[in-house]
UniProtKB/TrEMBL annotation:
It catalyses: tRNA(Asn) + L-asparagine + ATP = L-asparaginyl-tRNA(Asn) + AMP + diphosphate + H(+). It comes from Pseudidiomarina planktonica. Belongs to the class-II aminoacyl-tRNA synthetase family. This is Asparagine--tRNA ligase. The gene is asnS. The lineage of its organism: Bacteria, Pseudomonadati, Pseudomonadota, Gammaproteobacteria, Alteromonadales. InterPro entries: Aa-tRNA-synt_II, aa-tRNA-synth_II, aa-tRNA-synth_II/BPL/LPL, Asn-tRNA-ligase, Asp/Asn-tRNA-synth_IIb, NA-bd_OB-fold, NA-bd_OB_tRNA.
């Protein structure tokens, strides 16, 4: 019968059982005594299983001793306790079948030496075979499963929001346009501009920057909902924390205020951290050893402590008086840069921090205005090493206040008419947030660049594969 590597290494399969493991060769070593040791990985866990292949197998000389890193094989044998250090179990092979050879092993791009992250990114279709990408993707999967489980256990409904949309939820003008391939043939208006009324959707359409506006309409009837899907932003910044295509987890809660969703963010993050530490201990040990020596302790600590809350206004004062020279000066009313966010989380608190009540002029139109007339009920969760991982707010549920804000920001009311309807018919206070999923994976793994925690990163000048 077939078994995966994790079944063998975890001791799930009784010693003495005959099984077949299928996977890829990580390394091969031959002993003088005419035995070969082949390490096989199949993605099911961090470690590879060692197959001990005696020279008696039929194709020992013709094939086994020619196996190189990356070859695909099926090895049949008996599960045995391993005498050596390392794994507790190994496979005493009786048969080795080769599915596929590696053409010219000397030029195999994933040769078993250490490669730079930049190099791996250029081989995104093959970096899947490396330890680091395997570990990242298992942790990523664990986190996304944990988040779904968290919301499910709390009674949330998962709704899918559209990827193609007509509205700019953030009003930041960072959208990609969606059109048909023959856009160039669409009739032009008198002024020479493309007449989008003639285009496929009958208006200008875009890839969504956030599912929030849509998910609000579900929260304002089904009460507790979340969306978890891809979002797109034409960020012109080449940073290690921005992607053009990233995934966002966006819960939206009726009858909730800012502190409710701050609490939700805290329990959600802690739930996800616990899941990763217990379910992916093997991969986390690798990150601790090779990527970031503090990563496990850090998560453990965060789980045990209450998150610190702070007002934007107090944060500005701290940043101005901390004596550190920042590249960008801090003044009340300016958006915080990642260096400021990181200082607050890393140096000032040493843990994730929840910053609240930002100036309204640096935030989106939909955030609920506070009574001071200057700030909105917004919150960001800032994490050490990264900065913002979550942005959220109470939403403006008062139609007159929302309309005044749309006018003030010169946003077209007609375009938001459906959104305004939610305030016209049985409006309720509600609040929600967006967690940048790749920022979470970056934080949990200690990886340096967000492009290394998504299978195929999209960034300016980079949309290969
Ligand atoms: P930043 O200030 O870092 O550019 P933002 O304030 O523009 O982020 P929001 O509109 O608040 O981002 O989006 C919600 C969350 O989505 C952010 O807290 C962040 O975790 C994530 N996020 C935003 N932009 C990106 C991006 N380009 N790539 C990856 N994640 C992103
Ligand atoms: Mg941004
Ligand atoms: Mg921000
Ligand atoms: Mg934000």
């Amino acid at each position: 019968s077939f078994a995966s590597v994790v079944d063998v290494l975890s001791g799930e399969i009784a010693v003495g059982s005959e099984i077949t493991v299928r996977g890829w060769v990580r390394t091969r070593r031959d002993s003088k005594a005419g035995i070969s040791f082949i390490n096989i990985h199949d993605g099911s866990c961090f470690d590879a299983v060692q197959a001990v292949v005696p020279s008696e197998v039929d194709n020992y000389q013709s094939e086994v001793v020619k196996l190189t890193t990356g070859c695909s094989v099926a090895v049949t044998g008996t599960v045995a306790e391993s005498a050596g250090q390392g794994q507790a179990f190994e496979l005493q092979a009786t048969k080795v079948h080769v599915y596929g050879w590696v053409e010219d092993p000397d030029t195999y791009p994933m040769s078993p030496k250490r490669h730079s992250m930049e190099y791996l990114r250029e081989h995104a279709h093959l970096r899947t075979r490396t330890n680091v990408t395997g570990a990242v993707m298992r942790v990523r999967n664990c986190l996304s499963q944990a988040l779904h489980r968290f919301f499910h256990e709390q009674g949330y409904l998962w709704v899918s929001t559209p990827i193609i949309t007509a509205s700019d939820a953030e009003g930041a003008g960072e959208m990609f346009r969606v059109s048909t391939l023959d856009m160039m043939n669409i009739p032009k208006k008198d002024n020479g501009q493309i007449d989008y009324a003639q285009d496929f959707f009958g208006k200008e359409a875009f890839l969504t920057v956030s599912g929030q506006l849509n998910v609000e309409s579900y929260a304002c009837s089904l009460s507790k909902v979340y969306t978890f899907g891809p979002t797109f932003r034409a960020e012109n910044s080449n940073t290690s924390r921005h992607l053009s295509e990233f995934w966002m987890v966006e819960p939206e809660v009726a009858f909730a205020d800012l502190n409710d969703i701050a609490g939700l963010a805290e329990s959600m993050l802690k739930y996800a951290f616990k899941a990763v530490l217990t379910e992916r201990a093997d991969d986390m040990a690798f990150f601790q050893q090779r990527i970031d020596s503090g990563v496990i302790d850090r998560l453990q600590q965060v789980i045990e402590q209450d998150f610190v809350h702070m007002d934007y206004t107090d944060a500005v004062e701290i940043l101005q008086n901390c004596g550190k020279k920042f590249e960008y000066p801090v003044a009340w009313g300016t958006d915080l840069q990642s260096e400021h966010e990181r200082y607050l989380a890393e140096v000032h608190v040493g843990a994730p921090i929840i910053l609240k009540n930002y100036p309204k002029d640096i935030k989106a139109f939909y955030m609920r205005q506070n009574d001071d007339g200057k700030t909105v009920a917004a919150m960001d969760v800032l994490a050490p090493g990264i900065g913002e991982i979550i942005g959220g707010s109470a939403r403006e549920e008062r139609l007159d206040v929302l309309d005044a804000r749309l006018d003030e920001m010169q946003l077209p009311k007609e375009q938001y008419s459906w959104y305004r309807d939610l305030r016209r018919y049985g409006t309720v206070p509600h609040a929600g947030f967006g967690l940048g999923f790749e920022r979470l994976v970056t934080y949990v793994t200690g990886m340096q660049n967000i492009r290394d925690v998504i299978p195929f990163p999209r960034a300016p000048k980079s949309a290969d594969f």
